[in-house]
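User: Some background: our group keeps a shared notebook of sequences we're curious about, and every so often someone picks one and asks for a predicted structure to add to the entry. Today it's my turn. The entry only has the sequence so far, pasted here. Could you supply the structure so I can complete it?
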Amino acid sequence: MASTICVVGTSYVGLSLAVLLARQHDVVAYDIDASRVELIRAGRSPIHDPDIEEHLAGGGLRLTATTDKEAAYRDAEFVVVATPTNYDERTNYFDTSTVEQVVADVRRLAPDATAVVKSTVPVGFTAGLRERLGTDRVVFSPEFLREGRALHDNLHPSRIVVGDRGPQGAAFARLLADAALDDDVPVLLTDSTEAEAIKLFANTYLAMRVAYFNELDTYAATHGLDTRQIIDGVGLDPRIGMHYNNPSFGYGGYCLPKDTKQLLANYAAVPQTLISAIVDANTTRKDFIASEVLARGPRVVGIHRLVMKSGSDNFRSSSVQGVMKRIKAKGVEVIVHEPELDAPTFFGSPVVSLEELKARSDVIVANRLVPELHDVEERVYTRDLFGND
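Assistant: Of course. Here's the predicted structure to add to the notebook entry:
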């Protein structure tokens, strides 16, 4: 039987879920940003995701979009919360204010609806929110999506995790499983706090793997060794594998930096050394990359793309920004080429065309060596070995 679902927030997580579920159910996408709502109504995506763009343009979805909160919540059986939870460096805690506000509004405007939190939250958040609001109609369900591939990852999920072992958790898990194109997707119903821990520990493991191969690369570069040979030999161990092993400037994006810091904060009263090391490793790697670039003695350094992943239009917390700041701190001029950036400058650095970047830069810093840089490859600094993310 079809359900009525409201999705709050129309970025990667929210919009991909709205499109996924609107293939079979009536879905209302609610956002306070009127421009995003108008784009969705016009069949256009406010984010870059080829599958989302195709589905919105193709029609046939049972999807409406609105800025009217009361209308959005009124008839919903589930309200999916996909609002931002940025990490606050002052409090060592995610800013969960938008999530708490949405859930409070749902309790007031649609008390029979179940609020499903998809935003990443600290371990123990959902249980505390349930207690404060005096309700069990709040469920946490982590997402495991890649930017630019969010709908694809919802259509072909690696697993479905819902932090509620009762009927409402099972019902929401069925919605996601039925909407997937793959059969026999693993479904795990857990308690809410365990589900929150799954999200943070999974992302911290991925960050650890990035940091590991980056530090392997740092060692090899420092000693004049061939990083590719070492990684090939290490990765042939089936327990390690040849995936997610391409050296980079550090882990970045919206999730990994903040999720690792939040997990570390959750360890406040628990003995550990590894989680701290994962967080610290990212800083160490950026220091090394900047020193390598500066060792070439450039007068002008060009940054080729702030976006660090292919197919993404997002450069929030990208690791190259940390490298860029370190280079500028030494008095070296930095220019930036980023087609996704509609501004004349970025943190005081000129935003230039690809042609100007090539003409002016003594060193071009590129997280990934792409074909458009092959004609200036002798001036490109990259740690890219495999040509993938």
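Suggested note for the entry: The longest helix spans residues 192-222. Residues 4-190 form a domain with the Rossmann fold fold (CATH 3.40.50.720).
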